[in-house]
Each structure stands twice: as C-alpha cells, then as structure tokens.
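Subject: two folds for Thursday's group meeting

Dear M.,

Sorry for the delay on this. The cluster queue was jammed most of the week, so I only got both jobs back this morning. I'm pasting them in the order they finished. Each block is the input sequence followed by the predicted structure tokens. Could you check whether the formatting survives your parser before we put anything on slides? The first protein is the one we discussed after the seminar.
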Amino acid sequence: MLKFWRNPEFVRHVRAELRPARSIMVAVIVVLVCAMIGLACWSERQSILANAEYSAQHYDGAWTAYAAKLRAENGRQTWLLLCKWLFGLQGGLLTLWSLFACAQPIAGRRDRKT
C-alpha cells in the first residue's frame, strides 16, 4: 500500500470531507445540473429545427434542403452544444475556484497582520 493513503492529514480530510452521504449528494447535484443543461441544449436545437421546418413548409426552395440538413445533424449538434457548455462552465468554475483559493490565504494573512 502506498504511504500516501496512510498519511494522517489525508485520512483526516477523507473522514471530514468525503463522507458517503455528502459525496452522493454532490454527485446527484452534478448529474441534475448536467441534465438541465442538456435539456436546455436540446430545446434550443429543437427550436432551430422547428423554425427551419416551418420555413420549409411555407417558403419551400432552399429552406427544404436546409431543414433536411438540420434534421440529419440535429443529434450531433445537440451533443456538440452540450459539450461546449460543459467545458465552458468547467473552465469558468476552475478559474473562480483558483482565484478564491489564492485570495483566501492572502486575506488570512492580512487578518493576522503577518
């Protein structure tokens, strides 16, 4: 067994922060947020497809080919949009978390006047 797993500070952190109920709750919240973002992406793509199909029915011509193209690519475009949103949110949250992690010790030092 690696010595890292027997480190008393790591064991304390695991006991304090990684309790099963807390870990499950965080996982459930993450899955729900991802599902809501996925539904929003799907709704946007369906709206675009519905507008193209409406235009194809009323104006014909190039709109028919455009609607058929959108219908064929709808699934892939929905997944691509979902991935863009998730990667963007991860980048934003990582940036904010890093800024907070760097600012917290500085504020602590100012409070202690060291």
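Second protein, same layout:
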Amino acid sequence: MIHRSPVPQILLSRNALYISADFARDLRERGDYRLWLDNEVKAAFARWSVREADCTVAPSATFARELQQWTGKNVVCIHHGFDRELFFRDQSQLPPAQQAKLAATNGSVRLLFVSHYNYYRNFETLIRAIAILRKNLHPRTVRLILTCKLDSKDNPGDYRADSAARLVEQLRLSDEVVELGAVPYSLLHHIYRACDFYVTPAYAETFAHPLVEAMASGLPVIASDLEVHKEICGEAALYFPRFAPQALSDIVIQALQSTDQVAAMREKGTMRSQDFSWDKHVTELLQLARCLAGTSKCA
C-alpha cells in the first residue's frame, strides 16, 4: 500500500496464515522457525496494509470478521466467484498416466483432496483417517486421491512433504494414497466426477475454491469445522473437528450408510455452487470502487 495515497486504495486480502494461531503452532512444532519468522514479518506488513487502505476486501464474511478483529478496521466481504461453463468446458481426457492411476481405483471408496502439499491443509489428519477407514471398511477398499505428490521437490513453496510421506510409509498406506500429481485446471472436473466424496481437513482458509468446484460437480463435501467452510457450503456439507481423524472416519462411514443424506448433499451442493459468480464479484468490486471515488452512493 502507498502511505497517505492521494487516491482511494482497495486492498484485496486472502491470506489467513498471518492470523492463524494453528499455523503458528504447527510451524513451531515442526521446528520450522525460519518459515515462522517469515510469516510473522509478513503478518506485520499485512496488518499495516489493512490499516493504510481505505477499504479492505475479503473473499468470505468469516475472514472479513477475523481481519476486522485483528486490525480494528472495517473489512468488506465480496465472495470469490466460480465460472461453471469454463470449469466443465474442456472434455479432453486426462494424461494417460493419471487416467491409469484413477482407473486402478475402480471399486474403491474414493475420497478426493485437491491441493498441492502444504502444512495448513492438514494432510496428516487426512492420512491418519484413511488408515482408520481401511480397517473399518474392510473388506471394502478406500482410496485417497491427491492432486499432488508427497515429495518436497514436486511441490511449490517452502513446505516440506517429508513428514506426510513418512506417515504414509509408517501406516503402510502406499496402496490407499494415490498421488496423481498436478492436474490441469481444465481437466479437474474429470477427477471430481470420478470420486465419491470431497474431503478437506484444512485448518486455515479464506474461501476454498475446491469446495465450490466439488459442489458444482455434484460431489458431496466433508470438511473440517472451519467457519469459512460452513459459510461456503452451509447444509451441503458434513463437518468434523479439524484435528480428529477418528471423527472424519466416522462421518465418511455415516455418509456411506445413508444414500438419502448423500443425495440431499448433492442437490444442496449443486444449488449452493450457483451462488458464486465472477460477474457478481466484479460488479460488487466496481460498486465499491465507485463508492470510494464518490461517483455513486454507498450501499
């Protein structure tokens, strides 16, 4: 931000890590003090930026409230959008290697998690839940479909995937955890539609686009109990305590045993996904800009 800018400034804020106590604790427990210090320094600049801006926009009402409590400044919520036509437009096939990996999971309960590896998406809780599900669903098999590889060199940023990879090895889940690697955005709809549930154990989020993509694909959502997840999905999802693999496992089994509940989740999710539009997002952003510029009335 520009200090004492001569024109109104709108700040778009979408990083929940600066104010996440869980993230700070996680970094300290991992002994990643360099990343912890980096986050603390950036958080200080982020807070200053919010205070300097004439208006800050957050992608969810939940994150807007958190920013407001953190800075003492008013923050506006303008939801991110979703382009359904663009998302489902490309009907070309997945790359052969990914297609083969997905086909090998036919007949299993398929749980999908769309993310590159990072700490705040809480992969370890999900991996532990898969171990519980393997035992409780036997002889039925379960597969966790990941759109990343649990290898640090194959992931962007400074997050080390070694601990997650070791956990998969320790729990003997090499068959259950299917690492597709990065999937082009235009082809993601094939993955969503091939799976039984979308599952996210994330402990920090500001919006979470995959939730909307999953709902638009008719995929039932099981999400950690973040307020932002509840805001985006509402009654279209089931929720579990974010660090409780047993609870996650129990909810998956509960959903598998209730076809009526799953059907209702699909219907509600499809309807909820239609509430998010980039046209609406841009319209509200332009309206806010005109308000700050004094060329239109503020809502």
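Two things I noticed about the second structure. The longest strand covers residues 109-113. The chain has a mean pLDDT of 95.

Cheers,
T.
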